[in-house]
Specification:
This protein is α+β, with helices and mostly antiparallel strands.
């Protein structure tokens, strides 16, 4: 039975913080204009809306949610390499066409 969650690492592609506009990023979008959040706001949203919600839906053998293993002792690495704006083949392939090691 796990005692605690030591580290959480999440890298996710995102729009240019504080610059990208929803109407330009999402083809066909006709709703209200919105600007991409700051990296700090985005990281907070990822922890609250992804990490904590996911852990709350996992039930441990003792019947408690996995969220009980998450806390101040948990090391968080959210987009640890910084901005991740260009993704897919454009971001992964360099001059040699090799994929970056993190994808392998």
């Amino acid at each position: 039975e796990p005692q605690k969650i030591h580290t959480v690492v999440i890298s996710t592609q995102h729009a240019e913080p504080l610059k990208a506009k929803r109407t330009k990023e999402c083809a066909g979008y006709t709703g209200p204009e919105a600007t991409a959040p700051s990296m700090a706001d985005m990281n907070t949203a990822i922890v609250e809306e992804v990490v904590k919600k996911t852990l709350s839906e996992i039930t441990l053998k003792n019947g408690k949610p996995a969220l009980t293993l998450f806390g101040d002792h948990t090391h968080l690495h959210i987009n640890p390499s910084g901005k991740f704006i260009i993704g897919g083949p454009q971001g992964d392939a360099g001059l040699t066409g090799r994929k970056i090691i993190i994808d392998t």
